[in-house]
Specification:
One of its GO terms (cellular component) is cell-substrate junction. This protein is an alpha/beta fold and 559 residues long. The chain has 17 helices and 26 strands. The N and C termini lie far apart (90 Å).
């Protein structure tokens, strides 16, 4: 019996002025806005699809996944219906809609897809009162570059219609191929539902020595681990890879069922929100702990007794121990990348290894260009994101497996490895303070006045007293980045005060919200003397949501 072709409809709509992607082709908004504003999601999806040239879009393959948060299933249905109507030939979707961000990048690269759509708001809360997001990955498996994001935005401002197949229904739970005949289409539209873990797991097998990690977790000198998936997308990956494949006991993994509201908790792997993991680690029973954010690209590492490894130190320690990873022994190390606010701990390692360091604006898309050109092997950000050129996204589980590989090779505890690193390279004390929900106009004037203050000639070479330390200003600037690959210039990426001992103060506006602004202040102080490595950074670094912001006049010099 012949199937009746599914109709393709053109729906009239009106543009929204607020659909500018915040970086990497992503749009993140309150979930209620997506649900309540007429055509809000279809408008953005149409703008995204239309940003791909028609000749590249017709018949192409794209990958779709989500972190499982509330509204994901409804959104996937709309994405599928619109992809079909817009000429996409095949969609590859994770079973039940679940795919981590690293897995989407992996699949795009493996099958040479034209790109991918990830439904996630990263580490933001879920549920009806939380946030929802749509992120676009391009053909290299990385976030959309700024030129693509700008194109999406320009299309969104004049959009008058979108195309959709509203009668098309996909069974996300059934593995395998599903085909659909569409009106006025010569070839059927195909959807392939794939296991969420398989392709990504196969990639990891080719990067790591799984036998060494398995022996660490199951051998005579095994360590006990505690892994918190925070009820995000990483639950199936943790159970399948760390437990089933590498032998960690099933009770090593907690919060591994993806939930639409992440169990009522914010899926943000830091000391503020991963409190259940922190308390478990403080008990001393476990030698290694880790947590992941909602979509699996960020992570946090804890050692026995809750010993915390900040993200900048983690990046530097990984860099110093790449010889523990078969992938890098085979591929070599060409260079490192870090976002400008990330501490300069990585630079110290790079100097010893005699490899270049690329200092970029915040945003993984800047690393993608470096990796595509063969300049960068390892990169990371202070916001708990680390990755390598095996993908074009930051990769939380990859970073955890690197740490387990280092533990297996060096036969030391997390704390011993970190303290040995400090003894060799010095310690970079590091704090970040977030001043959230600022009125954008107020935030603008704070940054304007601060820039005027620190770039004035009278500010140069001033000294500031902090406790018993005196910090002398060496230089100040508004950071700009010139891409060494294509020469693209990115300006006004944060204000920097750099002191003579390499300590730094950085002020940067975050672009993750569309209504209110976030001012981030980063403080870095370098200490070479091992006898001074046991101090604690200010306790307030654990409280990343502070108010009110400081005024520029609060920078008081030594008289």
């Amino acid at each position: 019996m012949e199937r009746t072709p599914i109709p393709v409809l053109t729906v009239q709509t009106a543009p929204y002025e607020d659909q500018r992607p915040t970086g990497g082709g992503g749009l993140r908004r309150p979930t209620g806005l997506f649900e309540s504003q007429r055509n809000y999601l279809p408008n953005f999806v149409q703008s995204l699809l239309s940003s791909v040239d028609l000749r590249d879009r017709q018949g192409c393959t794209m990958v779709v996944g989500s972190d499982g948060r509330y509204f994901s299933r409804a959104a996937i249905e709309i994405v599928v219906q619109m992809a079909a109507a817009n000429g996409i030939g095949r969609l590859v979707i994770g079973q039940n809609g679940i795919l981590s961000t690293p897995a989407v990048s992996c699949i795009i690269r493996k099958i040479k897809a034209a790109g991918g759509i990830i439904l996630t708001a990263s580490h933001s809360p879920g549920g009806p009162g939380g946030e929802f997001g749509v992120k676009f990955e391009v053909a290299n498996g990385g976030p959309a570059p700024d030129a693509v994001s700008d194109k999406i935005y320009q299309i969104s401002k004049t959009l008058e219609e979108y195309t959709i197949c509203p009668d098309l229904r996909v069974d996300l739970s059934r593995l395998g191929r599903q085909e659909f005949d569409l009106e006025n289409k010569f070839k059927p539209f195909r959807v392939e539902i794939v296991d969420s873990v398989d392709i990504y797991l196969n990639l990891l097998r080719n990067i790591f020595d799984f036998n060494a990690i398995r022996n660490l977790l199951t051998g005579p000198n095994q360590i006990k681990i505690r892994i918190d998936a925070m009820n995000g997308v990483m639950g199936p990956y943790v159970r399948r890879i760390l437990c089933d494949e590498l032998g960690a006991p099933a009770n090593s993994a907690i919060n591994c069922v993806p939930l639409e509201d992440f169990g009522g908790q914010r899926p943000d792997p830091n000391l503020t929100y991963a409190t259940a993991l922190l308390e478990a680690m403080r008990g001393g029973e476990y030698g290694f702990g880790a947590a992941f954010d909602a979509d699996g690209d960020r992570y946090m590492i804890l050692g026995q007794n809750g010993f915390f490894v900040n993200a900048s130190d983690s990046l530097a320690i990984i860099a110093a121990n790449l010889s523990c990873i078969p992938y890098f022994c085979q591929m070599g190390v060409r260079g490192f990348g870090r976002s400008m606010p990330t501490s300069t701990a990585l630079d110290k390692v790079a100097k010893v290894m005699k490899v270049p360091v690329y200092e970029t604006p915040t945003g993984w898309r800047y690393f993608s260009n470096l990796m595509d050109s063969g300049r960068c092997s390892l990169c990371g950000e202070e916001s708990f994101g680390t990755g390598s050129d095996h993908l074009r996204e930051k990769d939380g589980l990859w970073a955890v497996l690197v740490w387990l590989s280092i533990l297996a090779a060096r036969k030391q505890s997390v704390e011993e490895i970190v303290r040995d690193h400090w003894a060799k390279f010095g310690r970079h004390y590091y704090c970040r303070f977030d001043y959230e929900a600022l009125e954008p106009r107020t935030a603008y004037f704070i940054m304007r006045d601060l820039e005027a203050l620190i770039t004035d000639k009278s500010f140069s070479h001033q000294q500031f007293a902090v406790g018993n330390n005196i910090y002398s200003v060496e230089r100040t600037d508004s950071f700009e980045y010139i891409d060494p690959v294509d020469g693209t210039v990115t300006k006004r990426q944060g204000l920097r005060i750099i002191f003579s001992d390499a300590s730094r103060l950085i002020f940067r506006m975050s672009a993750s919200s569309h209504v209110r602004a976030t001012l981030r202040i980063y403080a870095e102080s370098y200490e070479k003397d091992p006898s001074q490595h046991n101090k604690e950074p200010q306790s307030t670094f654990k409280k990343q949501h502070l108010s009110p912001p400081p005024s520029p006049s609060s920078l008081v010099p030594v008289l």
